Amino acid sequence: MRIIKICLALLAFSGLSMEAVAEPKGKHGAGQPLDSRIEQFVQKTCGDDVACAEKKRAEYADRMAKYQQYVQEKCGDDKACRQEMRTKYMQRRAKREERIAQHCGDDEACRDQLREKYSLKMKQAREKCGDKKECWKRFYDENKPKK
Predict the structure, then answer these.
(1) d(Cα 34, Cα 127) in Å, to the nearest integer?
(2) What are the backbone angles phi and psi of residue 13, rounded to the nearest 5°?
(3) DSSP the chain
(4) pLDDT digits (tens, 9 = 90+) for 21-44
(5) Per-residue pLDDT reduced to its tens digit, 58-112
(6) Position 108 in a domain
(7) Is residue 147 part of a domain?
(8) Which residues form the signal peptide (predicted)?
(9) Which of 81, 88, 100, 142 is deepest in the core (most CB within 10 A)?
(10) Is the pTM of this model over 0.85?
């Protein structure tokens, strides 16, 4: 369960919980607490480093806002479309966690390290590719897991 909570913070495109995909709940304002899963991730990652924690929270809030906008543009109020996006996300997350488990076993530090590495790679890809589908296709082809 702890793995899933941490993973939610490191989503490929969204960085947001499934509830946010299902129903937009608005943006987190300054001083408002984020989802408890994100707070746990921030605490585990940054410890007592306030600057690090604020940076992680800001990154999460930014990714969530962008993804909510993306979902709204793509689906509007179409609940079936939103459900399909949620299903695809859950499949991607499950596959990612399965690969992490195969690689690391029960070593939580190894799992955290792989998740952080994945998060960094996705952040770089978002900055590089933006909305360019061909760029994303190349990125996924280059980073396809070896079977």
Answers:
(1) 24
(2) -110, -25
(3) -HHHHHHHTT-SS--S-HHHHHS---PPPTT----HHHHHHHHHHHTT-HHHHHHHHHHHHHHHHHHHHHHHHHHTT-HHHHHHHHHHHHHHHHHHHHHHHHHHTT-HHHHHHHHHHHHHHHHHHHHHHTT-HHHHHHHHHHTPPP-
(4) 333 333 444 444 557 778 888 888
(5) 988 888 888 889 889 999 999 999 999 989 988 988 998 899 999 999 898 898 8
(6) yes
(7) no
(8) 1-22
(9) 100
(10) no
Please give the Cα distance from 65 to 75 (Å, whole number).
15
Calculated CA dihedral for residues 33, 34, 35, 40, nearest 10 degrees: -90
Cα angle for residues 72, 74, 79 (degrees, 5° grid): 70
Backbone angles phi, psi at 105, to 5 degrees: 65, -130
Q: State in Å, rounded, how far the first CA of the chain is from the last one.
A: 26
Q: Extract the tokens encoding 60.
A: 């999460």
- pLDDT score of 104: 92
List CB contacts of 39: < 8 A, sequence separation 6 or more.
Answer: 33
Residue 135 is part of which domain span? 2-142
Tokens at residue 56, please? 């992680």
Question: What are the structure tokens assigned to 55, written together?
Answer: 């940076």
- Split into its structural domains, the chain has a count of 1
